Amino acid sequence: MTILQRIHRDERGGIGILLLMTVLALAALMGLAWNTAENSIRRRHVQMAADATAHASAMWMSRGTNIISATNMLICQNSSAEVIWRAARDIGPIVKNRLDGEVVRVPRELARIQQRRDANRRAATPDPYLEITLSIEESVLLEIVRRIPPQYVYYDQLIAQIAPALAAMDESEFRVRRDEVFEYQTRVVDAVPAAVRDERASMGAQYKVTTAMATPGAQSYDGQTVDIPLPVKVVTDCNVEGVVGRAVQVADFDPNGNPRDYTVHGGYWGEILCPPLNRYFHNRLSRDMGSTPIRPILRSLDDLRGPGDVDWDELDLLPPGDTILHLIVDATRFSAPPGMTEDEIVALWTAYDRARRELLRMGFHSRFALPSFDSRVDHYRRIILTQMGVDPQWAFISYDRYYIPDWARPGVFQDAYDNVYRSVYNSNYGRLWRGRYEYYRRLWRLRIFPNPTLDAEARRLATEFARRVATQGAQRIAADVAPRWIARTWPYEIVPPETPVPPIPGLTDEVRWRHLTLLAAVQGTEDQHPKHFLPKLFTPPETAYVAWAQAESYNFHEFSDGYGGGDRYDQWMPPRPWRVSTRGGWSWQPRLAFSDALGDAMYNSDEFRAMLSETGVSGNDDAALRELITH
Amino acid sequence: MLRLAAYLAHRFREDRGGAAVSFILALLIFIPLVAILVQYALLANAKAMLDHACATTARAALTALPDEREEQVVRAAVFSLTPLSPKAAGVDPEADRVYSALLAVGAEVPASFPERYSYAMEATEVSYPDVDGGPWIQVEYRFLLTVPLARNILASGPDSIAGVRGRFFIMGAKQQLLVSPARWEANYHLGKPGSRP
Q1: Chain A residues inside the 8 Å CB shell of B181
Q2: Beta strand spans in A487-532 (E)
Q3: CA A544 → CA A420, B91, B109, distances in Å?
Q4: What's chain B's Rg over C-alpha atoms?
Q5: Cβ neighbour number for residue A392 with a 10 Å cutoff
Q6: A602/A619 Cα distance (integer angstroms)
Q7: pLDDT confidence tier of residue A614, bands split at 50, 70 and 90
Q8: Among residues 39-58 of chain A, which lie with CB inside 8 Å of chain B?
Q9: Higher local confidence (pLDDT), A439 or A322
Q10: Chain-chain contact of A594 with B55 (C-beta, under 8 angstroms)
Q11: pTM of the predicted model, to two decimals?
């Protein structure tokens, strides 16, 4: 038997060969499944690292923006405090001087009354009605003398309230504090890019990857690291001058039918002081004015005097209480005794009216304290806001002066026209109406001899006249002001959209990409390279996996109609900035976003492009990338 | 007769070739087992890839849905499952576009990519089941069984997908979504997270 025949007949080990083949096949299949899972895990790890890096960097951007917003609010609060501080400083001497003056004036007026009485009595034919007038004046003044001391009590309370604040601060310190806040903001703006770089480094260490950053808004060359800045910029000298509406003469007729010109006064529109901050500043000042303890004290002082300007024919509307004005009214309330002739009634009424006029002229009844304080507040509001507009401040990156886009011009023009028309009409109508009405009241002696029918006729004539003149004047002034107003550039926090809004609320995609978006690319290090089963059989990839993620800083108020987002662009005058200067501007948050800026990022950053090219992605063909991007 | 009986007795006592008979009998059971084993291993590999595809799709949904790009979510699933797919009979225009885009950005792609992508488009389904406080994302894929014998056992009957005739196994993977805040909406609507009402 040959060797071959022996081997052929030997049946031992047959199963072993089969088993060996089976084991090899199973090992190959196991390797296939293992390596698939290994690659999957490594890819997901790298993607997680990219997501974390991008999100963390956007979080720093959001934090920084929120800090700028909160500190801008702090600047406004400081300014509001300064306005009230200055007004409080002024009101003390105003009240004191007024009360001291009245203390001196009352005896003088009483002496003058006595002189006039003596002169009347010495006259050849003393005027009995003058005696009535002087008696009324004298009795009221004696009562007024009694009521001045309680007003000093409120003055003392006022001083006690404001003295600590006046002692604690100097006028110049407020602006110094605002400058300090601005310096702090500048440090924050400078620190954020460094914080993002640190975050990127720590993510790399934690996930064992190398990272690269890019942003559509900034380019880097020669492998330099892209810095991620905050979406803010410094603005100075941002006050906006207004448009003057000149007074016009409207031709009409006087009550006798003679032609006459009547003046309709214009105004001043479109002035915006410190546009980036004025919204919150005004809100804050209103709140602080409502809560300051100074105003209740001043109101109580004024309540001892009179209810303010009152229509003498609306006596029922006087508030109850023991005020000086009530005193004057009660003292001069006219009531003719029965049996008098018409001339006697007129003479008596004239005597009472003369006393009333004289007492009103003296002004002891007028409420001055609270109106004086409010007037000082308005005065300093303007001064401080002007100063803020001159000083440097941090505003949202897209803030600027823009021309109104063509599609919005008709709407904005109409809004401007309506605004001016309404304001001119309302501010002139009352004056014109009262003048004409008073003429008829004097003519028909309606005060002395009330007549409802004639009174209604007087009102009707006055209404027709005032409406006619005010309408004409308002139309002419509005037609003059509105075109000039909208021809200027307007301060806006966002770039005006080129198409009517909605559907684009708030920020345009261009601004979002350029200033609020960043991308992070990561590549696994040697530690993250896939460890294949049977690497000689299943060759692992030559380069480590690369992943990228896009993140952005956003504010959900952008899509809230109540906070300036989603506004119809042509319906808001003046603009309502809020993105880095109000409570709404305190809500910037990071989010992962769809990578629609990948093309720009690859174009702008050498580092980013180099990392992606390791995986074979070398072009930045935007259309091709848009076709391929899935996250 | 006696000679025949003696011959048969002699033959029955002869035990040569006995192992071959038992081997053939064992083989009839062994081969299908091996086939099932191989097919199962391929299925396990496919499941691993499907899980990865589901994770990739969920990641795509994270940002594509809030930005109202739902089609990109499906594309993520299809992309991930293309390497697992056989060549379809024809080429979908979208597959062509994607292939051209890949070449345009410099990626190295096999020439069979468009056909495989076309199959994956037909064979993949993405849905958003609302289960246990969801939302979830679910990816289903019709995997072509290629191992003879095993495919007859594992699949019910022959079918055709994208012009590929054969037996298919429906596989699914599910992952819960934690969607990024919407750019356009503050809240989500289940079923299609991140979409407008």
Answers
A1: 554, 556, 589, 591
A2: 490-492, 517-524
A3: 67, 32, 18
A4: 26
A5: 14
A6: 8
A7: confident
A8: 39-40, 43-44, 47, 51
A9: A439
A10: no
A11: 0.85
